[in-house]
Amino acid sequence: MLPFRRHRLPVFALTAAVLLMAGCASLPNAPTPQQQAATDNAAQLYRQGNFDAAAQAYLALAGQHRAGREANLLLAVESYRQENAWDKAAPVLEEIASRRLDADQLQHYAVLRAEAAEARGDYANAIALSQDAATLTPAWRGRALEVRARAQAASGQPLAAVRTRLTLDASLQGFDREQNQQQILDTLGTLDRQALNTAGSQLAADDPLKPWIAQAIAKQGGALAQTLPQLNSPVGTMLPGSTREGYQPPHHVALLLPLSSPLAAAATAVRDGFLEAQRADPEGASMQVEVIDSGASVNSA
Fold first, then answer.
1. What angle do CA 146, 151, 156 make, to 5 degrees?
2. S-S: 246 plus which of 76, 173, 235, 261, CB 3.0-4.6 Å?
């Protein structure tokens, strides 16, 4: 078995878990005062960040009260997870009888199984267990997408990992979003410029991944190669609809010339030549030309 791996837990995951503790740590039916006190103590230990003690408290509750056993085992696993103690969490996770969990607990259980698989280096299972992330409620969807992205990156699927993070990005805010976007760039940074250009050239112009690839290439000192149109006829060949192959006439042109400078004579000649060429072009009538005097200095230009 591969060694367990440590990961920094994103803030949104911790927040979701704390909310879970507040809402799910009570026993079914009417607990005795002693049971409620033990439950409150376990939740308090968790909120204080004393995760190992919280896990032990939830395990004690699971052993003492059969009715709430699965819920408390689930919370024990969550507590161990918060300090990346998967060597302790994994055996407890195996004890949980999923048939006794309610709908929300089942989602929590599924996410924990994916995280446990990723922690032991079983990336294929982590990806498979998190593939239904879109069907999860927002409380668990973010964690499922996060573990899926990490497993994809670790298993040599950087572009898939980035696409997963782009899906995750829409649901994040503040520091969590900044961290996720940095992970996008870091993951793309594992590819060299040629691989990035190849990937970028295969994407549609409106693909949300494309600007991120362009940014990653820029960080490596390059620029995303532009895909030039493939011409079927010589440039300028008239095609049906009065258009020319390889040519899209502009509708508005700004012509900046130093008309009030010592170069005015040359600027006037350029202007007149440009306007004459426009009149001679059959498509020139659809073009609006605005001649602008750029003056005699850099500042005026």
1. 130
2. 235
The tens digit of pLDDT for each residue in 11-50 reads 344 444 444 444 444 445 667 888 889 899 999 999 999 9
Of 53, 60, 58, the closest CA to residue 26 belongs to: 58
Beta strands in the chain (DSSP E): 238-239, 243-244, 252-257, 288-293
Collapsed DSSP state (helix, strand, coil) of residue 289: strand
Going by their DSSP bridges, the two strands 288-293 and 252-257 should be labelled as parallel
pLDDT at 134 over 90: no
- What distances in angstroms separate CA 241 from CA 37, 68, 251, one per listed residue? 81, 74, 16
Alpha carbon distance 158, 56 (integer Å)? 38
Q: Return all residues near 175 (Cβ < 8 A) that are at least 6 apart.
A: 11
The pTM assigned to this predicted structure is 0.67
Segment (H or E) for 1: none
- CA 40 to CA 80: how far, in whole Å? 18
> Which three-class secondary structure state does DSSP give residue 130?
coil
Rounded Cα distance between 137 and 171, Å, is 12
pLDDT of residue 133: 87
Residue 102 to residue 217: CA distance in whole angstroms: 47
CB neighbour class for 80 (10 Å; exposed up to 12, middle 13-18, buried from 19): buried
Residue 248, phi then psi, degrees to nearest 5:
-120, 110
Q: What share of the chain is helix, strand, coil (3-state, %, to 5)?
A: 60, 5, 35
